[in-house]
Amino acid sequence: MPDRSTEGMKVRRAVLGDAHVGRPEAAKTPLDEAFQTLITESAWGTVWASDGITRRERSMLTLALLAALGNFEEIPMHIRATINTGASKQDVMEAFQHVAIYAGIPRANHALKLAKQTYTEIEANDA
């Protein structure tokens, strides 16, 4: 059985980047240590580490699910992660179109607004 914590941290850093992952790791306290372990082992060490679908596809699914469920605060983070997963702007738009049809236009509209803002920030930082 693979070490889900080690693999999870490896995948988490590959997808989100060292700087992003380093912040919660540096701020970890006894209060949230078990939660951070849960995220690393389950989301990153099990789901994202699976080779059943590509990271590009996982990005698209994750963004669609976040938007559909109204978990908008994580959308910018996962838009930034598309740089590492290979999901294009068009891929993201396709995912949000599915959200519009199956979960509602207001959620997809807000997710798209966040995506546009995040892409603008990314492009400004690259300039």
Automatic annotation (TrEMBL):
GO terms for molecular function: 4-carboxymuconolactone decarboxylase activity; peroxiredoxin activity. It comes from Pelagibius litoralis. Its EC number is 4.1.1.44. NCBIfam families: decarb_PcaC. This is 4-carboxymuconolactone decarboxylase. Gene3D superfamilies: AhpD-like (1.20.1290.10). Pfam families: CMD. Residues 34-116 form the Carboxymuconolactone decarboxylase-like domain. It comes from the Bacteria. Keywords: Lyase.
